[in-house]
Amino acid sequence: xxxxxxxxxxxxxxxxxxxxxxxxxxxxxxxxxxxxxxxxxxxxxxxxxxxxxxxxxxxxxxxxxxxxxxxxxxxxxxxxxxxxxxxxxxxxxxxxxxxxxxxxxxxxxxxxxxxxxxxxxxxxxxxxxxxxxxxxxxxxxxxxxxxxxxxxxxxxxxxxxxxxxxxxxxxxxxxxxxxxxxxxxxxxxxxxxxxxxxxxxxxxxxxxxxxxxxxxxxxxxxxxxxxxxxxxxxxxxxxxxxxxxxx
Length: 247
Prior knowledge:
By secondary structure, the chain is α+β, with helices and mostly antiparallel strands. It folds into two domains: 3-77, Winged helix-like DNA-binding domain superfamily/Winged helix DNA-binding domain (Arc Repressor Mutant, subunit A, Orthogonal Bundle); 81-242, Beta-Lactamase (2-Layer Sandwich), CATH 3.30.450. Helix content is 43%, strand content 22%. The chain is built from nine helices and ten strands. The strands form three sheets. A six-stranded antiparallel β-sheet has the order 7-6-5-10-9-8, with helices on both faces. Residues 1-15 have low confidence and may be disordered.
């Protein structure tokens, strides 16, 4: 079998560009898309890459949230969903959320987002911006911290013992769970406030957080007072589209 820069000419990715490191990274992603989650040894066997090369590329892909690791096994990262909405597990969620995010933007006059949790971070998988004026812009595919901002705290509040190294007080998480939404002021970014609510999937677990964000000058120092009811309603609407039992 012929090869280019050590990559077989026929492999799971289907094409070879001649740029060795890129071809190898795509080869790993293509393998995980059909054979993952997989341990390092399985990735090495399936891609026929040298073990040090596979480990180095997997580590780099994990840093960029293109690959995630859990229990010693690697799988595709949700940043791919944010960029292309092509991760099957979340495609229905994004499609259900898009019209709701647009309606929420129109009702509040502020930018809206949908976040999903990945490890100790969150990924923006859908975003609808305010049409004009000063706005909070969060691009699809952006990877943001869980501990800063209402969207991250909502996802963290319902997580099951994941990422407990994060510095979020239990009392704050209890408040978020009890009232069903979170707010933040100048946490993730100076001058920005936000309100978020959990979106429960059909299994009853939190699958995403829907958020409204904008400048503090418009949202105020207690944005939940004005926006929480609308944001929670939007979350329930997304759940209804997904067929969630909670809806």
